[in-house]
Amino acid sequence: MRAADLLVPYPTVTLSTPAIEAARILADADLPGLIVVDDRGAPFAVLPGTQVLRLAVPIYCQDDPALTYMVDEAAADVFVRELGDRTVRDLLPPQPHELPVVSPQATALEIAALMARTRSPLVAVVDGGLQGAVTLHGLLDRVLAA
């Protein structure tokens, strides 16, 4: 089984996409993350959904989870407003990580190893341009069925 057999069309965002819009794309399509593309449309980064949450959840709640009990339900339900005017660029870590990108010829094991190594729930498939993505869910569905 190769990446070409596993890939699906996948939405992308740019570095200047508002973070709240990225969160909406994740939520509306039940995605594990997003592919961030540069000005040429080439993959620049993979943004896991948890990284979006990291900037939405107040730092004090991340540092001390006990403080989350002190926030009333009405305020707790709108924590995503913390994203404010931030962009996708603000959601990315300052140090670039290994980019989870494979060719259409990559095997299922190569994809799984890359996902595990980069802790990425999806891998971009590139062959002269972005062809789509392989998601963790899609990969596991296919390899478990085999």
UniProtKB/TrEMBL annotation:
Domain CBS: from-to ranges: 9-41, 98-143
Pfam family, one: CBS
Protein name: CBS domain-containing protein
Species annotation: Catellatospora chokoriensis
